[in-house]
Write a structure and sequence with these properties.
744 residues; five-stranded parallel sheet; Rossmann fold; 30 strands; alpha/beta; 4 domains; 23 helices; globular
């Protein structure tokens, strides 16, 4: 399409320009558009659909502020020469049917992207239309948990309730000291039910008694029965989850019947404060944006909005304004107005400066802002939202939540396993601490590439009273070390160990690596179907838990597929000469079609090299589970054509995986290894559990980890089975031209 080719720095420059004037940046050059790509419109502009409520109950509280925020952003983007966007508005009419019709109309017009749809109930029905037609759908404000998981074309700029609510709960509970509460929510509305669910989950995790959960239906006007029931129970605070109209009436009626305890109302804005008037005084709310935020460009945005529209902006205008810039940045990075290209560029948005703060998407297209904790909770004072002052210390201490990290920093296992794990953990730590309410610090311990070292490291960390330990790559070490954590009630989470069944050591033990009884059968099935081998040989390390377990699972899968096993040769860890075993295999009559190798890195490398040196023919396919780029660099041409099974690859198109690869390369100067990716994912999974637990108690973290289901990570949507074993899709790779590539 006819797109100006603009570097990302120009958008950063735009934020500066809004604060300092255009003299703060170099003049932005207009690059000649790609002549091979026809323009979207005759004048070179890119049409962006806008589906917002311009009429009906949702217009003034949501739709019109969104439209204003987008328009202001569009004017600035186009005026600064940072893009050429043309908004195509369609009225969503404040109904599900209107939202569906608006999105369908814009899809039919062929727009590459649609922004809007503020109400989560409407989004659930309307955005799948865009997804099915391959059109980017970007909501500035919808915040019910998990809706971006509807598809890879769907993104949101509002903080989802499962991200925002835990921060607000921690702050208000510590500030107000409530011990028993009531909730009231709209059971017919997706946002309200999702918000209430996160509120109750967080309250229960914090040991707060919920006296009652009262419900109503959208468009109800009389809430006296529910509020009277709440008042009779004498709660310390009342949580309200509702859309604007009902929210306003509940606040008014609660004060009328005499409820004087704090009302805590997520997503309260100036519109509801004006509607509730004096009844809103003292109401507390959670929000991802405030008019007083010191995020770069925010005060200029507030001034420009006020000058243009005659009043201060609310969060819905601010989030829509930021959405416009985020979308324009993606179009520029995509160098295209093709929907798929925009989707891919949006997914990789990381640390992009907006008035919400530095903005990133999580793997599912959900918004993540930095410094959220500084501006989440506000209270109505003198008719205005002001920072909630009665704030006790945050969920973490100044030094953060201490997590033990046991990896091999010295010895034979350091470079193939321990150091990549450490790098993956540290990269995730930096991102999590910047973007979420969980602040993690590591207490590292070197297992010295030995069982004794691993046992000592875990014991040392347990003795320090840490709530959780991550690490331990080698299954042999894990078997002896993790029972110490189990016996002491400390969460022990291995990012890469994969011998079958080790999480059954106990309910505090979890693993992120795909166990061999999950990965090997999948790899055998794929390779057997495509290669058609009928007879094979096996070689494995009989002294190593992972290798024997991997060999057992491979053998079972082969036998189940009717493949004949001609020989099983064994080695011992630390041996260096495997010529006898390999010669035995080479001399088999009939010869095997494939040779499966199960060994740790150092022995794996030598087996592959010596197999080539002995002249094992090309007709014998080498299949080496867990072969990575590290081993490829050492074996050289001897690995050409070898096949590997893995839980992660840098070739993955999983959302956020490529952003992880880029961040890792930028930080460490090398491509990430699977062990780094698994460790990176491990810390995100653990941080999510800590946030859901609203606690640093080991048992609470364990209980929050165990039900992890379809959590988006760079490994894919991640779940635990009942034993704490990882569940996600495995991948088969083949070495071509010295590189691991997808096995087609």
């Amino acid at each position: 399409m006819n797109v100006r080719k603009i570097a990302t720095f120009a958008f950063v420059c735009a934020i500066v320009a809004l604060v300092m004037g255009l003299s703060g940046c170099e003049k932005v050059a207009k690059i000649v558009p790609d002549a091979e790509t026809p323009p979207m419109t005759t004048d070179g502009t890119i049409p962006i659909g806008v589906a917002v409520a311009l009429t009906g109950d949702n217009a003034e509280p949501y739709g019109i502020p969104m439209k204003r925020g987008l328009e202001l952003a569009g004017e600035e983007i186009n005026a600064l020469g940072l893009g050429s966007l043309m908004f195509v508005p369609v009225d969503a009419q404040s109904t599900v049917e209107g939202g569906v019709a608006a999105v369908q109309q814009l899809v039919d017009q062929g727009v590459p992207a649609i922004v809007g749809i503020g109400i989560s109930t409407h989004l659930e029905q309307a955005f799948p239309i865009a997804q099915e037609n391959g059109v980017v759908a970007f909501s500035p404000i919808s915040s019910a948990a998990g809706l971006s998981a509807l598809g890879d074309y769907i993104f949101r700029a509002g903080l989802a309730v499962d991200i925002l609510t835990p921060v607000g709960l921690k702050t208000t509970q510590e500030g107000l000291g409530y011990t028993k509460v009531a909730t009231i929510y709209d059971a017919a509305d997706t946002y309200s039910t999702s918000s209430n669910k996160e509120i109750t989950k967080g309250l229960e995790a914090g040991g707060i008694e919920i006296l009652t959960e009262e419900t109503f239906q959208t468009d109800d006007t009389d809430f006296s029965a529910q509020l009277t029931n709440i008042m009779d129970m004498s709660p310390d605070a009342v949580f309200v989850a509702a859309l604007s109209t009902e929210m306003t009436q509940i606040i008014i009626q609660a004060r009328e019947i005499g409820i004087s305890v704090p009302l805590i109302v997520p997503d309260l804005t100036a519109a509801e404060i004006q509607g509730a008037a004096a009844a809103a005084e003292g109401v507390i709310t959670f929000s991802g944006w405030s008019v007083g935020s010191d995020a770069p460009g925010n005060q200029t945005f507030v001034q420009n909005y006020q000058a243009k529209y005659g009043h201060e902006p609310g969060p819905w205008a601010a989030q829509a304004y930021a959405t416009g810039y985020i979308l324009a940045n993606a179009i520029a990075n995509a160098q295209s107005a093709d929907s798929a290209a925009i989707r891919d560029a949006l997914a990789q948005t990381k640390d992009f400066p907006t008035i919400l703060g530095n903005f990133s998407f999580d793997p599912n297209g959900e918004a993540m802002y930095d410094r959220v904790r500084e501006r989440v909770v506000h209270i109505v004072k003198d008719g205005k939202l002001q920072p909630f002052e009665a704030v006790a210390p945050e969920m973490t201490t100044d030094t953060g939540i201490p997590i033990g990290m046991v990896v091999s920093l010295t010895g034979d296992d350091a470079e193939p396993y321990g150091l990549p794990m450490k790098r993956g953990f540290e990269l995730a730590q930096e991102e999590i601490n910047m973007l979420s309410p969980v602040n993690i610090t590591f207490v590292p311990a070197d297992d010295q590439s030995s069982e004794a070292g691993a046992i000592a490291a875990v014991q040392q960390l347990v003795d320090q009273g840490l709530p959780a330990i991550v690490g331990i790559a080698i299954s042999d070490y894990l078997e002896d070390a993790f029972p110490i954590a189990q016996e002491n009630g400390v969460v022990a989470f291995s990012s890469v160990s994969t011998a079958a069944g080790l999480s059954s050591i106990g309910d505090y033990v979890f693993r992120a690596g795909l166990a061999v009884d999950i990965m090997n059968p999948s790899g055998v099935m794929t390779t057997h179907e495509k290669l058609g081998y009928t007879k094979v040989a096996l070689i494995y390390d009989a002294s190593d838990t992972y290798s024997t377990s991997s060999n057992d699972e491979t053998k079972k899968a082969l036998e189940a597929s009717g493949v004949e096993i001609l020989a099983e040769e064994t080695i011992q860890r630390g041996e260096t000469d495997f010529s006898e075993q390999l010669t035995n295999i080479m001399n088999l009559d009939p010869q095997p079609d494939a040779l499966f190798v199960a060994a740790l890195s150092a022995d794996m490398v030598q087996i592959v090299i010596q197999a080539g040196e002995l002249g094992i023919p090309d007709t014998i396919q080498l299949i080496v589970p867990d072969l990575t780029a590290t081993e490829l660099r050492q074996v050289g041409d001897a690995a050409e054509g070898a096949i590997a099974f893995t839980g992660w690859t840098g070739l993955s198109n999983i959302p956020r995986s490529q952003a992880f690869v880029q961040s890792y390369q930028a930080k460490y100067g090398i491509e990430p290894e699977p062990w780094a990716a698994m460790s990176y994912a491990t810390l995100y999974i653990l941080a999510n559990a800590i946030m859901n637990a609203q606690s640093t108690d080991s048992a609470a973290i364990r209980d929050a980890l165990a039900p992890t289901m379809n959590f988006p990570t760079v490994l894919g949507n991640f779940s635990f089975d009942p034993n704490g074993e990882a569940v996600y899709d495995a991948t088969v790779l083949i070495v071509k031209d010295g590189q691991l590539q997808l096995f087609e």
